[in-house]
Specification:
The chain is α/β, with parallel strands linked by helices and 333 residues long. It has twelve helices and nine strands.
Length: 333
């Protein structure tokens, strides 16, 4: 069976109606996406082609999209919020509807909200990407705390405005407390890290030997290796200390409780948790699939070996408190 045929079969099943009984006009769907078009555009387009649904997507950062949803409130045209991280979903949880049980139970308990308002679509691990030309294995840190050592001064890259970075700092506040997190941010500032707008240029800089280490999500490296080959001079360090720097997050989605296209929105959710879509995330974006029966990419360590902190992802919603701390410490303006 061709991939497109499989997608159509999954999509038709997700619509909960056979083709001969579906309306001639399958309707529309508005997705607000905090995930970049380069990552999720192809699979959203596949859903649209398979169902015939007119899918309109508004792209932006997860933080920006969450703020927009809060501002629009009940007047929002959005049907689905597809977020880069659980913090963004938690920030708008009051705007999300309860998902059907069959959708919620598709993913493991740790990868969904306790109230069933959102589910993870794919898994993403925090890592330290490092330059294989500048850092030997015996120099590798065992924690992000090690990066406050003066020997790393001027050698670090980080993306302070990135949603996943903010979520990691939120996890620090939750696990370490405000004071210890504040001190870590101040000590990192003293080491004069290079500031980047997002993860991709940090990985590029590590591969070019422009930074020794960087704080990123795991999957960006593998996109570079796929494009440039195994000689790309950077690798990932998965920290296994059970702390916030070994956080395993999800990119997830929820349906707005004001959605005027609820059936299509739920079909979208079912499609994203289908084996077709989960294989896309595993094979094309190098993320962790969350549905049973889909294999992790061979280049990645199994998700159950990562020793993440085991915190409730729904507790990572206080992005405003994190931003306040980042401003207080001078990390962001």
């Amino acid at each position: 069976m061709e991939a497109s045929d499989a997608a159509k079969q999954v999509a038709n099943s997700a619509m909960m109606a056979p083709l001969d009984t579906m309306m001639e006009d399958p309707g529309s769907l508005v997705v607000y996406s905090g995930r970049s078009e380069s990552l999720v555009g192809p699979i959203i387009e596949q859903f649209a082609e398979a169902t015939g649904i007119d899918v309109q997507v508004k792209y932006g950062s997860t933080f920006e999209i969450a703020a927009t949803l809060l501002e629009e409130g009940s007047n929002s045209p959005a049907d689905v919020f597809f977020a880069q991280d659980p913090g963004g979903l938690g920030a708008v949880s009051d705007l999300l509807a309860s998902l059907p049980g069959d959708v919620v139970l598709k993913v493991p308990e740790w990868a969904r909200s306790p109230d069933g308002s959102w589910v993870g679509i794919s898994g993403r691990a925090r890592v330290i990407v490092y330059s294989t030309e500048l850092v030997s294995e015996d120099e590798l840190p065992t924690s992000v705390m090690d990066l406050t050592d003066p020997k790393w001064k001027g050698r670090i890259g980080w993306p302070p405005t990135n949603a996943s970075f903010r979520t990691m700092v939120t996890a620090m506040r939750l696990m370490w407390g405000e004071d210890e997190t504040r001190q870590w941010l101040l000590d990192m500032q003293a080491n004069e890290p290079g500031i980047f707008p997002k993860n991709t240029p940090i990985v590029a800089a590590a591969g070019a030997g422009e930074v020794a280490v960087g704080l990123v999500n795991h999957y960006y490296l593998h996109r570079f290796i796929q494009e440039e080959g195994d000689d790309f001079a950077a690798r990932n360090l998965f920290l296994k200390n059970g702390g916030p720097d070994s956080l395993v997050m999800v990119a997830g989605a929820g349906v707005l409780n004001t959605s005027e296209n609820r059936q299509n929105a739920e079909a979208f959710m079912r499609f994203m948790l289908s084996k077709v879509a989960q294989q896309y995330f595993a094979g094309q974006t190098f993320e962790y699939p969350l549905v049973e029966g889909v294999k992790t990419h061979r280049l990645l360590p199994p998700i159950d070996t990562l020793n993440g902190p085991g915190i409730d992802l729904s507790q990572l919603s206080d992005l405003q408190g994190t931003d306040a701390l980042l401003r207080e410490t001078g990390v962001i303006p």
